[in-house]
Write a structure and sequence with these properties.
The chain contains five helices and four strands; from the N terminus they run αααααββββ. By secondary structure, it is mostly helical. Among the domains are: 54 residues, no CATH class; 79 residues, no CATH class.
């Protein structure tokens, strides 16, 4: 407000210079005072403007809003089927004595005894596998068939042995038909599993007497 009044007063004094007023309107002694006041008011206006500029806060540079990105959830790691594998092995043991057969030192038995024991293992384990897996041969023909493995053949379906040189196609003889499954439904395991501890495959059997 003070700056505005000073500017208006300076305007009035400057008008006294420019307007054609009669010489006898103002006394001759008024001119020096008029000039001094005009200079003071002009100086006041200039100083007020400079001070106002210094006090005016500098405008901060405009910051562009950062693009909002949705947090990406880390991929969920599927827990390894440790319990299901233990239960499946337990079923092979219960139905076919699979672990007993593998852990037994069969070098002390003759072929007839081993053959008799393997029959029990074969029947029991075959029943478990057929219950949870649908197994079929990879090669639908017979062992001994001559086939050609093309470049476009699935490498997971064939394992090349012998003298494998150059690039496909390869011609060879089937020495094993391979196995594949179209269904894998392992039994559900409900007991807690400690990967660093001792997990029971099949409990010890105690006959109470």
């Amino acid at each position: 407000m003070g700056t505005l009044i000073a500017a208006f007063a300076a305007f009035v004094l400057s008008a006294l210079y420019l307007l054609p007023l009669p010489p006898d309107l103002l006394p001759a002694a008024f001119a020096p005072y008029r000039d001094a006041v005009f200079m003071a008011l002009s100086l006041y206006v200039v100083v007020a403007i400079l001070i106002g500029r210094q006090r005016k806060p500098k405008a901060e540079p405009r910051r562009e809003p950062e693009p909002r990105t949705e947090p990406v959830a880390p991929p969920k790691e599927e827990p390894p089927q440790v319990g299901e594998a233990l239960l499946f092995l337990s079923l092979l043991q219960d139905k076919g004595r699979f672990v007993d057969f593998l852990m037994e030192d069969i070098t002390a038995y003759n072929d007839a005894q081993v053959a008799a024991a393997s029959r029990v293992v074969h029947q029991g384990c075959s029943a478990v596998i057929k219950e949870y897996l649908a197994i079929s041969p990879v090669h639908e023909g017979k062992e001994g068939d001559r086939i050609t493995i093309e470049r476009s053949s699935d490498p997971n379906r064939y394992r090349l042995v012998g003298k494998v040189l150059g690039e496909p196609p390869f011609s060879g003889v089937v020495i094993h038909r391979g196995w594949q499954t179209s269904r894998l439904a392992l039994p559900r395991f409900t007991r807690p599993v400690d990967p660093s501890g001792r997990n029971t495959i099949t409990p010890a059997e105690v006959e109470v007497r």
